[in-house]
Design goal:
This protein is of the alpha/beta class and 525 residues long. The protein has three domains: 23-198 and 317-432, Alkaline Phosphatase, subunit A (3-Layer(aba) Sandwich); 208-213 and 222-308, no CATH class; 436-515, Arylsulfatase, C-terminal domain (2-Layer Sandwich). It is built from 16 helices and 16 strands. The strands form four sheets. It has an eight-stranded mixed sheet with strand order 5-4-8-1-9-10-2-11, sandwiched between helices. Helix 5 (106-112) runs parallel beside helix 13 (397-404) and helix 6 (162-176) packs parallel to helix 11 (301-336). Bound molecules: 2-deoxy-6-O-sulfo-2-(sulfoamino)-alpha-D-glucopyranose and calcium ion. Residues 34-35, 73-74, 95, 141, 194-196, 361, 444-445 line the site of 2-deoxy-6-O-sulfo-2-(sulfoamino)-alpha-D-glucopyranose (SGN).
């Protein structure tokens, strides 16, 4: 055969092969905020704020109406997400234990398969991130103003507001470091709106003059509940502090005094991190509120109402910055032509109480903290404006991302890929019950250890360690979980069935007392 003919034939074969090749692997941007309650996202029907940019993901993709976590607290959720395994197997049962990075994680597997992998923002797992081409993370909880970052090159402080900076770093990587010939997976993880809710310069006055509607259970007295609900330490009234939480500025703000209560010094540490200009803007926004409070401090029920309004003001201001910055990122994807082949996920590490039961924080298996928001946009695969009612979990992310990249997840991962749901395929075999296990006790907020099962209609919880109490809720009749039916007449059969299904889940996921004991002390305090 003549040489030119041979070359032409070879080119045709190469062309035909290229046409048959796997479709282009999608990029993945996994946006996660910290403690962002679904009640504060307008796509979920928020009555307290608007989140137009996050809502875009619902309009252009899918909103999950029933997304849950396995253990509602920060570091454990992050370890579950990375490994696709429950806490009793990945070893991060609470915020104290360190993550063992030798484990298989979805970023490591994507990296080995040729993805560029990036981790920016809140990490909270103590050990250095592994499996990332680029990482820049906050130490521990991080700071709102002028935060420090951990990088492979050491620690570095960046001036500005944390939510803006995390986005600047993400955009900078996309613009200047990304190899356009390879897919990427970016974990873009906000610190906001975590306690102590310090709003950024752009939103210091956004909610001034607004009165937020109170949740119906703000004045809950915990009748018909167990000791766990009564004995927690996460009430807005008693456990939210005047300094760093409510922003009542101490008179001697520039002196750290060892005899000051922790929260007053926490206010001072936060304030002292600010530049002169940041402090000027802060004082201008907050001084009138502090003066009004000091001249006429509310009492009785009015004090709780006042604290709730203060809480919402600052919490929602932090979310306004998150929403703006999600908008900046989505705009860049549009402008750079990346939108079409990029899966964008928005979620929170867990849910949060916005005054329901009189609480803030999370931890309980009750709905507000057991659930988490989840919105996913996947152009060309997911129908815009679609809704998913299936019960999905943060346990499912690892397998979802691997599946979307055309990879087979390792055996030990315990979730389910959400890809069929995202494609709108009907599936009859989806899970019909959820397993939950929370461990961090005794600890801040004093939520007792518990595990349980949730089906579409019922929830059965066992609180243990220093108590032995069961709770049963009918979510259809009692969506706010105010009436514990455990042991009540007529519920024996339902309870027996739930207990047997709970045992099956414990076996299925390989949980056991021995595993808990191997990680956590058993001596009761
Ligand atoms: C801090 C907060 C707590 C919060 C934990 C865990 N107190 O200790 O309210 O429950 O973090 O949060 S603070 O006044 O220091 O903010 S988590 O999201 O990291 O699990
Ligand atoms: Ca959190």
């Amino acid at each position: 055969m003549k040489k030119p003919v041979f070359i032409i034939l070879l080119s045709i074969v190469a062309f035909l092969y290229a046409c048959q090749k796997q479709p282009e692997r999608p990029n993945i941007i996994f946006i996660m905020s910290d403690d962002h309650a679904y009640q504060a996202i307008s796509a979920y029907g928020s009555v307290i704020n608007k989140t137009p940019n996050i809502d875009r993901l619902a309009q252009e993709g899918m909103i999950f109406q029933n997304a849950f976590v396995t253990n509602s607290i920060c570091a454990p959720c992050r370890a579950v997400i990375l490994t696709g395994k429950y806490s009793h197997l990945n070893g991060v049962l609470d915020n104290v234990l360190e993550f063992d990075t030798a484990q298989a994680t979805f970023p490591k597997i994507l990296q080995e398969a040729g993805y560029q992998t990036v981790m920016i923002g809140k990490w909270h797992l103590k050990s250095d991130p592994k499996g990332f081409d680029f990482w820049k993370v906050l130490p521990g909880q991080g700071n709102y103003y002028n935060p420090d970052f951990r990088t492979p090159e050491g620690r570095k402080q960046i001036e500005g507001y944390v939510t803006d900076i995390i986005t600047d770093v993400a955009l900078d990587w996309l613009k200047n470091s990304r190899d356009p010939d390879r897919p990427f997976m970016m974990m873009y993880h906000h610190k906001a709106p975590h306690r102590e809710w310090w709003p950024g310069p752009d939103h210091l006055k956004t909610f001034d003059g607004v009165t937020f509607p109170e949740p119906p259970t703000l004045f809950d007295d915990y009748t018909n509940r167990g000791s766990a609900a009564r004995e927690q330490e996460m009430t807005i009234l008693h456990h939210m502090n005047p300094g760093s939480d409510l922003k009542i500025k101490p008179d001697d703000v520039d002196t750290i005094r060892p005899d000051d209560p922790w929260n007053i010094n926490a206010y001072k540490w936060n304030y002292r991190r600010m530049t002169d200009e940041q402090r000027r803007q802060w004082d201008e926004a907050y001084d009138p509120m502090v003066e009004a409070f000091k001249s006429n401090p509310p009492e009785g029920d009015d004090l709780l109402k006042w604290k709730y309004q203060r809480y919402m003001h600052d919490y929602l201001s932090c979310i306004a910055s998150v929403d703006d910055n999600v908008g900046r990122l989505l705009d860049y994807l549009d402008k750079s032509g990346l939108t079409e082949n990029t899966i964008v996920v928005y979620t929170s590490d867990q849910g949060f109480y916005l005054g329901e039961h009189g609480w803030f924080d999370k931890r309980f298996m009750y709905e507000e903290s057991f659930r988490t928001p989840l919105l996913i946009r996947w152009p060309g695969r997911t129908k815009p404006g679609s809704q998913c009612e299936k019960m999905v979990m943060n346990l499912d992310f690892a397998e979802t991302f691997l599946d979307a990249a055309g990879l087979t997840p390792p055996e030990q991962m315990q979730g389910e890929s959400l890809v069929p749901l995202l494609k709108g395929e009907t599936t009859d075999t989806w899970r019909n019950a959820l397993y939950y296990h929370y461990y961090e006790y005794p600890a801040v907020h004093m939520v007792k250890r518990h595990y349980g099962i949730r089906t579409e209609r019922y929830k059965l919880i066992h609180f243990y360690y220093d108590i032995d109490e069961w709770e049963l809720y009918d979510l259809q009749e009692d969506p706010h979980e105010l009436n514990n039916l455990y042991g009540k007449e007529g519920y024996d059969e339902i309870t027996a069935d739930l207990k047997s299904r709970l045992n099956s889940l414990i076996n299925q996921y390989g949980d056991s007392d021995e595993l808990t004991r191997s990680f956590l002390p058993q001596e009761k305090e």
